[in-house]
């Protein structure tokens, strides 16, 4: 379920086709924040028997839900996280948003109040020199029926025109708001709809008017490919048995696991990073910066702390694997992770009220302790849900207001396991 849900990628336009070398996007998602997902923050859902935000709020009632979520919004991502993101050499954050942050009807159990936190995060990004990519993660009726949209169940987005109209209203709000001068142009992209499971025809019917709303100078319209894109994981072979993960061990002391993750991470980084003129890719976004329990391979900061993500992704001298002329890593390069993970600078634990306790905020390199990620984390989470068949990367295309030509792609929301049909 988890791996299936999040195996996502996006492609969008860059200036590459026009001769200029665009800055490479090395981004991370602020996942599980303004749209919650039980597998990412189980403590929020613990007191209820619910599997999405709609039903969580329905069960708690508006007042209690607002109180619970306000607490989460104000603590789960803080300025310190963005500082750590910047320090890790990342260049951009993607912030998923549900429609109900902007357009909530009385009968819907959701609560709103996310917007001030979004505004604050954009301002932090502006201060710190990070770009921001906004996306509609949850649309009315749900565009894929998964928990990430806030509502598990049937795909009812196309049940009526109202759902599309409401989504467009939200897109108009985001566009008008974040093209205001005082945000410093830091919001570079707005994605119309995340991971839609719709027919091509329905998608196009929505994309055309929606793109017109976002298409203003400065913000690039970004569309998800709805899983139709044939792009697949080109530079790595998950069926190569010599590199199959051993799923029986899952502690931070598992050297083989960390060796494998490092190779996988660097292979993806190399695959999705442009390596020469005429490349279509301009970068990637990893899902996610963190989770309440930093589940292996889904948490960027855990990768930093356990040493399987390079400490400064913008600095290739921190990579382990050489990159060959064809842009792929040299898989023959001998690399073995350190016997113990000693990189940790934060404690990947969460207090029972869901607020995060962290010291050092997961800056990867300069370690001052060996406290390790929370080794109990993986077993307390949803990681037992079985993996589905592998989801190849999907994509989205983006268009600038001035140039409607698609000339590049960015893989988005890439988590290492998302592309493989195994789960730890
Ligand atoms: C990361 O590497 C880039 C490129 O070398 C450099 O400009 C930046 O200062 C580095 N960041 C940190 C926190 O060391
Ligand atoms: C449109 O569809 C949604 C989701 O199925 C439903 O909740 C809503 O009541 C419908 N609205 C109208 C106006 O039919
Ligand atoms: C967008 O919606 C938010 C939340 O309702 C509101 O505070 C903000 O003023 C709106 N911005 C624009 C430009 O409409
Ligand atoms: C939008 O895309 C164009 C290429 O189509 C690129 O030149 C421009 O830098 C992008 N804008 C932003 C704000 O990223
Ligand atoms: C997987 O790891 C466990 C624990 O280290 C070990 O006992 C087992 O033999 C390994 N299995 C394979 C197939 O390598
Ligand atoms: C954006 O606007 C420009 C100028 O009005 C237009 O040529 C282009 O087709 C629009 N792009 C999209 C994606 O709607």
From TrEMBL:
Signal peptide stretch: 1-22
Positions of the UniProt region annotated as Disordered: 352-398
Domain of life: Eukaryota
GO CC annotations, alphabetized: cell surface; extracellular region; plasma membrane
Glycoside hydrolase family domain segment(s): 69-223
GO molecular function terms listed in the Swiss-Prot or TrEMBL record: glucan exo-1,3-beta-glucosidase activity
Example of a GO biological process term: glucan catabolic process
InterPro entries per UniProt: GH, Glyco_hydro_5, Glycosyl_hydrolase_5
Keywords (A to Z) from UniProt: Cell wall biogenesis/degradation, Glycosidase, Hydrolase, Signal
PANTHER family: GLUCAN ENDO-1,6-BETA-GLUCOSIDASE B, GLYCOSIDE HYDROLASE FAMILY 5 DOMAIN-CONTAINING PROTEIN
Family statement: Belongs to the glycosyl hydrolase 5 (cellulase A) family.
Protein name: Glycoside hydrolase family 5 domain-containing protein
């Amino acid at each position: 379920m988890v791996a299936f849900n999040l195996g996502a990628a996006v492609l969008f336009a860059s200036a590459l086709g026009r001769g200029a070398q665009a800055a490479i996007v090395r981004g991370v998602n602020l996942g599980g924040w303004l749209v919650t997902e039980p597998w990412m923050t189980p403590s929020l859902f613990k007191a209820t028997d619910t599997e999405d935000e709609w039903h969580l709020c329905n069960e708690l009632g508006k007042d209690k839900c607002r109180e619970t979520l306000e607490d989460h919004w104000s603590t789960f991502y803080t300025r310190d996280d963005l500082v750590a993101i910047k320090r890790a050499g990342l260049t951009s954050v993607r912030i998923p948003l549900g429609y109900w942050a902007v357009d909530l009807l009385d009968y819907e159990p959701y609560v709103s109040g996310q917007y001030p936190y979004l505004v604050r995060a954009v301002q932090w990004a502006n201060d710190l020199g990070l770009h921001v990519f906004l996306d509609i993660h949850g649309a009315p009726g749900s565009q894929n029926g998964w928990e990430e949209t806030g509502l598990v169940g049937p795909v009812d987005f196309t049940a009526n025109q109202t759902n599309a109209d409401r989504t467009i209203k939200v897109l108009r709000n985001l566009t008008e708001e974040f093209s205001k001068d005082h945000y410093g142009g830091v919001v570079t992209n707005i994605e119309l709809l995340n991971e839609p499971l719709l027919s091509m025809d329905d998608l196009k019917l929505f994309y055309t008017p929606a793109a017109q709303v976002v298409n203003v100078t400065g913000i690039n319209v970004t569309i998800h490919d709805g899983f139709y894109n044939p792009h697949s994981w080109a530079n790595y072979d998950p069926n190569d048995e010599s590199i199959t993960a051993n799923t029986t061990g899952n502690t931070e002391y598992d050297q083989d696991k960390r060796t494998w993750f490092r190779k996988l991470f660097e292979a993806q980084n190399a695959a999705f990073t442009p390596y020469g003129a005429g490349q279509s890719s301009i970068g990637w976004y990893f899902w996610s910066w963190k989770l309440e329990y930093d589940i292996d391979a889904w948490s960027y900061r855990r990768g930093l702390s356990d040493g399987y993500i390079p400490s400064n992704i913008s600095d290739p001298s921190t990579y382990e694997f050489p990159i060959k002329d064809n842009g792929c890593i040299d898989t023959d390069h001998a690399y073995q992770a350190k016997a113990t993970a000693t990189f940790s600078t934060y404690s990947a634990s969460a207090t029972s009220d869901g607020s995060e306790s962290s010291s050092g905020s997961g800056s990867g390199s300069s370690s001052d302790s060996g406290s390790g990620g929370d080794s109990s984390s993986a077993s307390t989470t949803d990681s037992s849900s079985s993996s589905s068949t592998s989801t190849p990367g999907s994509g989205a295309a983006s268009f600038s207001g001035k140039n409607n030509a698609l000339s590049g792609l960015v893989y988005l929301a890439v988590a290492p396991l998302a592309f493989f049909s195994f789960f730890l």
